Amino acid sequence: MENISELKQHLNAIEQTRQISNAMYLLSTSRMKQSMQNIDYNLAYMRKLRATIKDIISKTKHNSLTDPFMELTEGGKALFFVITSDKGLCGGYNSAVFNLAISKIREYEKTVVYSYGYKGTEMFLNHGITPDDSMYGASQKPSLYSARALGERIVELYDDCEVSEVYIVYTEYVNSAVQRPVCKRVLPLLRRDFDDVEYENKYLADVLYEPDLQTVFDRMVPQYIIGMMYDILMQSAASENAARMTAMQNATKNADEMIARLSAQINAARQLIITNEITEIAAATDIKGAV
Amino acid sequence: MSEFLLEIIAPEKHFFKGMVEQITCQTEEGELGILKGHQTMVASLEIGEIKIKTNGEWKSAFISEGFMEVRNDEVIIFSQCCEWPEEIDGVRAEESRRRALDKIEHAQNIKEHRHNEISLARAMARLKIKKQSR
Q1: At what angle do helices A144-159 and A213-290 cross, to 10 degrees?
Q2: What ipTM did this prediction achieve?
């Protein structure tokens, strides 16, 4: 026979865990919705920005626009920015990003690895890779401020020729059930990156650039990168919360099942005790009656 | 006066969308006014003030660095950050102005200097617009 107080303790513990996982489920649902709204705003911004950039680069002949951001230099270092979460309990979110990052990093000879997120840094260290830099904190509340800091940092590294390619490994938010780890090239920008942009502008001739084409373009690129970083951080945050939402939903469901099973066990044990007691009493009265 | 469509978009929000009569903004070469039927143009904008005229009334707002696409009957402005005077946090702007000034004084290298100069420009522009609206 199982010990009732032990079972009760177990039940209590599970009930408490269920409360936590349920609260986390609700929290991550609302956070996900918040990030999704921001993604929509930013996408509209990015779509128009891309259309304008495409407009400029399609008008200029190859190489007449001299921009260091558009040149692919071979043999330089590749920078990998890996975005993971700071906290766990989000299912396979972190390991999916990490596995993709590792496989991409192995393709390059000279790499610089920046880890953004506590969990990613931990996994890199476990694999014997020490990230060249690690940062925390942005995945909780991605803001334009952190996107700008990140974007400026990338542009600076690229400008100083420390790195010749910049990749970001993050999780793309497809919908609340599907999140996909992707590796995206941020720099250099290549003409073919803009191939998929639909043409909005029909007026190809007679556009005035103020002060001139080169200046406008030089200003546009950093803004584009900051916008891209913002999108990436937002998508990661939405994915993280979506992954956590699913994980916590499952955890809550499992807890419910365990609670049902344990309550049944406790009831059965209690009934057994009562039955035994009745049998004992009945036996005792029988003996008393016989005497 | 004939109107045209103005859209101001930032990564965090859609700041403005509506019919306007005239706008004035700061470019590298000075103030630039736009009316309906302006030549198609792409201009980069400085950190500063943007003035919008709707229904005969001028409104001004803070605008961070960005650029502007002008078409015949439509203007789209892309900016990192846009704020109406009532949205500007005066205390925060004053703080960041002081901080930027302090940092410029103690800047170790050109990069740091330039970086803080931009912060200073943002703070000054915010304060100026806030003050005007009072």
Answers
A1: 130
A2: 0.76
A219 interface with B at CB cutoff 8 Å: yes
CATH of B4-83, one of 2.60.15.10, 1.10.3720.10, 3.10.290.10, 3.30.750.24: 2.60.15.10
**Segment A186-222, tens digit of pLDDT:** 878 877 777 776 665 555 556 777 777 777 877 888 8
Report the topology of domain A26-246: Pyruvate Kinase; Chain: A, domain 1 (3.40.1380)
Nearest CA in chain B to A38: B12
- Residue boundaries of the structural domains of chain A: 4-21+248-290, 26-246
Amino acid A196 reads: D
At residue A206, the pLDDT reads 65
The stretches of A114-212 forming alpha helices (DSSP H) are 118-126, 144-159
- The domain ranges of chain B are 4-83, 89-133
Distance from CA of B9 to the nearest CA of A (A): 6
Please indicate whether, in this complex, the C-beta atoms of B14 and A44 are within 8 angstroms of each other.
yes
The CA distance from A216 to A212, in Å, is: 6
pLDDT tens, A25-83? 999 898 888 888 888 878 878 887 887 777 777 776 555 566 667 776 666 788 888 88
Return the CATH architecture of domain B89-133.
Answer: Up-down Bundle (1.20)
How far apart, in Å, are the Cα atoms of A221 and each of A143, A214, A269, B131?
Answer: 20, 11, 71, 33
How many Å apart are CA A176 and CA A285, to the nearest integer? 66
**Using one digit for the tens of pLDDT, what is the confidence trace for A90-122?**
878 888 888 898 888 888 888 888 888 888 888
Helices then strands, each counted (H, E), chain B: 2, 9
Sheet holding A165-173, edge to edge: A133-135, A111-116, A78-83, A165-173, A179-187
Check CB contact under 8 Å for A48 and B78: yes
- Give per-residue pLDDT as tens, A9-23: 999 999 999 999 999
